[in-house]
Amino acid sequence: SVETKSPGTFTRGVREKTSSEKGFDTDRMIFKDDELSYALGKEGSTRKKLEGASGAILQYVGHVAFIAGTQKERRRAKEYVTWLLAQRRGSVTIHNISSRDDSTEMHVPENCKGWVTGNRGSELRRMEAESGTYIFMALDERGEER
User: Fold this and answer.
1) CA–CA separation, 146 and 139 (whole Å)
2) N or C: which end of the chain has fewer CB within 10 A?
3) Per-residue pLDDT tens for 94-104?
4) Secondary structure (DSSP) of 70-139
């Protein structure tokens, strides 16, 4: 892309933005160097997965994520990106999961975790592709994995 060959062509001076518009609008997130490739995934697979699961339009131009959609879709996409990046540093804790309308919590018995996740998460990735969702292991408020 042009932005890759000539950084800043389209993104120079662009800052993070969160719109208060409930209807369709665009928010922006800025990625650090090490976050961009992780949030993109192989051939854009991670970006596409988060886009599909959130319902928002998610596009990366240089180090800027442009998130378009309703306020609810934009908020979800930003949360999903934040959770994704947090996984690189360790376990992610999700609060009040039962009050969310975009997620399903499942307890996986300790002796089944390897079978459910698969080698390096391959089984989770397969289920994500099949269902158009974003799936990961997280901790609840009590620190229990689910």
Assistant:
1) 6
2) N
3) 888 888 888 88
4) -HHHHHHHHHHHHHHHHHTTS--B-SSGGG-SS-------GGGHHHHH-GGGHHHHHHHHHHT------B
Which string of DSSP letters, residue by residue, matches 29-88?
A: EE--HHHHHHHH-GGGHHHHHHHHHH-SEEEEETTEEEEEE-HHHHHHHHHHHHHHHHHT
Digit-coded pLDDT (tens) for 38-91: 999 999 999 999 999 999 999 999 999 999 999 999 999 999 999 999 988 888
Single out the residue of 104, 51, 107 nearest to residue 77, CA to CA: 51
In 3D space, the residue among 28, 92, 34 whose CA is nearest the CA of residue 65 turns out to be 28
What's the CA gap between 5 and 74, in Å, rounded? 28
CA gap 101, 75 in Å, rounded: 13
